[in-house]
Amino acid sequence: MIASEPHDNDAARQAPIKPLVVVCGLAGSGISTALHFLEDAGYTAVDNLPLYLFDQLISREVEANKRQLVVSIDARTSGFTTDGFLGLITDIRKRLDQNIMLIFLTTSKNELVRRFNVTRRRHPLMRVNGDIDMNLAIDKDSDRMTDIAEIADLMIDTTGVSPQQLRRQLLNGIGSNAAEPMPIVVQSFSYRHGAPSDADMIFDMRFLSNPHWIGDLADQTGRDQAVQNYINQDPVFDRFMNQLKAQLDMMLPLYQQAGRPQFTIGFGCTGGRHRSVYA
Length: 279
Known about the structure:
The protein has helices at residues 31-40, 51-64, 82-95, 109-119, 124-128, 134-150, 163-173, 225-232, 235-257, 275-278, and strands at residues 3-7, 20-25, 44-46, 69-73, 100-106, 154-157, 184-190, 201-204, 263-269. The chain is an alpha/beta fold. The protein has 2 domains: 17-173, Rossmann fold, CATH 3.40.50; 182-278, no CATH class. The strands form 2 sheets. The protein has a 5-stranded parallel β-sheet with strand order 3-4-2-5-6, with helices on both faces. α2 runs parallel beside α3. The longest helix has 23 residues, at 235-257.
């Protein structure tokens, strides 16, 4: 038997400050990664939206449905022109009474070349203009993004920045100290049927006295008071739980800060009915 139960941790749920965030910048600077982090922070994410649909999306999702939205714009964007994008942002800022944040990501040219070489992907402008090389594509992208960078509310240079560091800068930039609380899933399982493959931590509870061999406790579970009373009599149980609590109190906030979307803990025993369920 495997039983799963989600638990919210103590992180506070904070709604994003701005109803609309637009992430743009140089191709290869981490725009897709930033989009994922902001999605985890509570925004609905739209990647690489054609520019001609931008106005329609804002009208329907942000203004009418009051949805908190993050949209990415980069060299791949269909219909993109610098002047067109600047005019669009100016109009939306007026319509939303400045309740929009424009985030611009940049990276050094050497770092961009390295990233494209590592991933073995072509720069988007090389696909559009097949006659240009990597360096020229990066220069062309940088030229047409210069004016946009100047009106950004937040600029982040991702050169040498880890994903965790980028996440923290983004959350600080939008005024949110934490993303959505990291769900904690607790599972009980039977070793006869195998441990859950998705568990981040597994604890074998078979070191405790087994209620299965005690009278009518065999037909009960760890949710029943009689079984709980029996397990509580084992002096090792309290020591184990206290040490486990101290360990999780230290580790879980660190996993939250690292951006882990979920943390799963498995407690196992022989039948998956008594000791693992109570733990």
